[in-house]
Amino acid sequence: MKKVIGILIILCFTGSVAAKDIYLVSANIHNNDTLLGSPKLGVEPAKQAIVSVSNAYDFTVVVHEKSESTVIISINLQLKGEEHNPVMEVALGKEASITTGDTKLSVLVTKSST
């Protein structure tokens, strides 16, 4: 009987631990057709993730779930003294890109649970 109670207690605790969603954001940053970087970030929903590469760029991203298959991604890219702030609706698993001037940014977002 003690074994059964112990197993039930363990099942209650493990059942209450929820999986945490993480969005995996893979980006390619080009300037004048030259690849400057390919940051890859794990981002919790509605939390900010930042990559800073000295003397090259600062890349900040926030991901908001819109539906089971779509997210809204807000990006702040500081590159060569210019600031780019695109907001894009992105289908999970499909690459999206935006070009402003000489800067091209492409992103691929996938969802993972931990």
Q: How does this model look, in words?
A:
- Helices cover about 15% and strands about 60% of the residues.
- The protein has one helix at about 1-15, and strands spanning about 20-30, 35, 40-45, 50-55, 55-65, 70-80, 80-85, 85-90, 95-100, 105-114.
- Strand 5 and strand 6 form a beta hairpin.
- The protein is globular, with a radius of gyration of 19 Å.
- By secondary structure, the protein is mainly beta.
- It has one domain (about 20-114).
Topology summary:
Layout: H1 2-16, E1 21-31, E2 34-37, E3 40-43, E4 48-53, E5 57-65, E6 70-79, E7 82-84, E8 87-91, E9 96-100, E10 103-113
Antiparallel strand pairs: 1-2, 1-3, 1-10, 4-5, 5-6, 6-7, 6-8, 9-10
Low-confidence runs of at least 5 consecutive residues = 1-8, 11-16
The helix-and-strand class reads mainly beta
| Computed Rg | 19 Å
Shape by Cα distribution: globular
Helix content: 10-25%
SSE topology string = HEEEEEEEEEE
Helix run count: 1
Q: What is the arithmetic mean of pLDDT?
A: 86
* Total beta strands: 10
| Biggest pleated sheet | 5 strands, antiparallel
Number of domains: 1
State the distance separating the first and last CA atoms. Answer: 33 Å
Task: Give structural attributes.
five-stranded antiparallel beta sheet, 1 helix, 60% strand
Task: Describe the structure concisely for a colleague.
This protein has 114 residues and is mainly β. It contains one helix and ten strands; from the N terminus they run H-E-E-E-E-E-E-E-E-E-E.
